[in-house]
Design brief:
The structure holds 2 protein chains of 2 kinds. Chain A is an alpha/beta fold. Chain A has 6 helices and 10 strands, in the order βββαβββαααβαβαββ. Chain A starts with a strand and ends with a strand. Chain B has a single domain, classed as Orthogonal Bundle (ABC transporter involved in vitamin B12 uptake, BtuC). In chain B, 81% of the residues lie in helices and 0% in strands. The model of chain B has no long low-confidence stretch (mean pLDDT 89). Classes of the chains: A alpha/beta, B mainly alpha. The structure holds adenosine-5'-diphosphate (ADP) and magnesium ion. Adenosine-5'-diphosphate (ADP) binds next to helix 1 of chain A.
Chain lengths: 210, 292
């Protein structure tokens, strides 16, 4: 999926977070967002996903203004954190099967296996470690057959082995022309995959480089 | 027990109202916790309460009109309740727009309006009996007729079908609304459908269990099962089991001891909740002990 951002400026009430950000990604390109905590990486991601509202004419997916898209299709998102606002019990398998509207098939099993989710597939999510939960969130995003995959600090809390598994998954997706945007402090992780880096800083300024 | 049991069964066979009431009761026992689960997760408890009071207003308006127009048309007050209940969900949305930070005000306003209208139309309706108004408050399941049972059965069947078709989307929405939207689910429409279903459930059950006990049937069995459930599905199934146990036992007890059914069932639900709470406490202590 092609992503175009034109002069995106965003402020929460007073504080300017993103100042005139523009970039273009072709299908299969990989963008790494970098910048210290609080510089607006998550904010930028939320603007792309319509979690935060942006003016018309700033963000386009395949040349369609996102404000004109009624329902997203083939967009995968791994949030930095999921707000659990309730105590209702739910298992890993329920989160994943509900995210997959088709009946379970080979693709489903491949995603589960590639991230090593099987050992805790039947567990209640309250019994998972942070890293295990992160893998579930990554799997959930992949189940949506993304053409655009956006991951907000997905490498936090996962061990080296899982990191490698994630890397391999992303590598394969890139080969399949999936556009990937990832925010991470671990620039080594995406070094070989990244086509561009976008660096944000505290005063809302950004810089893009290869 | 063995000697007296047949008389309940016998009455079931011979006494039509009891049979109708039990069928309606079993439907409620199934549908109430199913709807209630979503109500709890989506934090709609207050909406449920509000709608039941507004729906009550609809029923009283319906009774008023049916008395007034008795020789022109025959209006089933339930339909008026359904209409008010669904209308109420839209009024809540409309009122919400006026208050940015006090959204729950819209519900309080509607609730007051519902109670006020109910009082007014009960007073305006000539020859309305106290037993009827008590029935609206606490339920009068024994007075259900064939028609009511049919409405209950159809409503229940439709809700089951809806749940079966959209189960995954509902779970998605319940777990993570933001992600549900990004993954392409029409969250607004689904949310609307859920609210309308809630409105229908409330008004259809209103006559059977009464405005004051609806929440007890929707919420209490689920409050018990979330304390011990491991999965979404298991929690809902357990709630349904608790609810059916309360309904069937409640019917039996109230038949034997001549007690009001609605209250008996609601109290049995609370008894089960208390039992589950006790169980959870003891289990916790036991686990702690076995760890040390
Ligand atoms: N909902 C919000 N309301 C107000 N300010 C916010 C909100 N969310 C984030 N911020 C502020 O915006 C800035 C950028 O946050 P964020 O995008 O989460 O940064 P990053 O992901 O780069 O760590 C931070 O200073 C944060 O305090
Ligand atoms: Mg962040």
């Amino acid at each position: 999926m092609q992503v175009r951002v034109n002069n995106l400026t965003f402020a929460y009430t007073q504080k300017l977070i993103l100042n005139d950000v523009s970039f273009n990604l072709e299908s299969g390109e990989f963008l790494t967002l970098v910048g210290k905590n609080g510089t607006g990486k998550s904010t930028l991601i939320k603007c792309l996903l319509k979690i935060l509202k942006v003016p018309d004419g700033t963000v386009f997916f395949d040349n369609v203004d996102i404000n004109a898209i009624k329902l997203f299709k083939n967009v995968g998102y791994v949030p930095q954190k999921v707000e659990f606002s309730y105590e209702f019990p739910i298992t890993v398998s329920e989160i994943l099967t509900s995210a997959y509207l088709k009946v379970k098939d080979e693709y489903f099993n491949k995603v589960i296996n590639s991230l090593g989710i099987n050992p805790f597939y039947r567990d209640n999510i309250n019994n998972l470690s942070g890293g295990q939960f992160q893998k579930v969130m990554i799997a959930r995003a992949l189940l949506n057959h993304p053409q655009l995959l956006i991951l907000d600090e997905p490498t936090v809390g996962i061990d080296n082995e899982s990191m490698l598994a994630l890397y391999e998954v992303l590598e394969k997706l890139k080969e399949k022309k999936v556009t990937i945007i990832i925010s991470t402090h671990d620039t080594d992780f995406s070094k070989d995959l990244s086509d561009y880096y976008l660096e944000l800083n505290e005063v809302g300024v950004f810089r893009i480089y290869k | 027990m063995i000697l007296t049991a047949p008389s309940f069964i016998e009455s079931l066979i011979n006494f039509e109202p009891l049979r109708y009431a039990l069928i309606a009761g079993i439907c409620i026992g199934f549908i109430a916790p199913l709807t209630g689960s979503v109500v709890i997760i989506r934090r709609l408890s207050f909406i449920a309460d509000t709608l039941s009071h507004f729906s009550l207003a609809g029923v009283t308006v319906g009774i008023f009109l049916s008395k007034l127009l008795s020789h022109v048309i025959n209006i089933n007050p339930i339909y008026m309740g359904v209409l008010f209940s669904i209308g109420g969900t839209f009024i809540i949305e409309l009122l919400r727009g006026f208050y940015k930070n006090y959204k729950e005000l819209s519900m309080t306003i509607l609730l007051s309006m519902g109670v006020a209208l109910s009082g007014l139309f009960i007073a305006l309706t000539p020859g309305i009996s106290t037993s009827y108004t008590t029935g609206l408050l606490f339920g009068s399941i024994m007075s259900v007729d064939k028609n009511d049972v049919l409405v209950t059965l159809i409503t229940s069947a439709l809700i089951l079908i809806f749940t079966a078709i959209f189960y995954k989307q509902i779970v998605s929405l319940c777990f993570d609304e933001t992600h549900a939207r990004i993954s392409g689910i029409n969250v607004r429409l689904l949310q609307l459908a859920i609210t309308v279903i809630l409105a229908v459930v409330i008004s259809v059950f209103l006559e059977l269990v009464g405005v004051l006990l609806i929440s007890a049937l929707l919420i209490v069995p689920v409050s018990a099962s979330i304390l011990i459930g491991n999965s979404f599905r298991q929690t809902i199934t357990t709630a349904i089991v608790f609810s059916e146990i309360s309904i069937i036992t409640g019917f039996y007890i109230s038949f034997k001891l001549v007690l009001p059914i609605g209250s008996t069932v609601a109290l049995l639900n609370i008894l089960i909740l208390a039992g589950v709470m006790l169980f959870v406490r003891i289990r916790k202590r036991y686990v702690k002990k076995s760890e040390t």
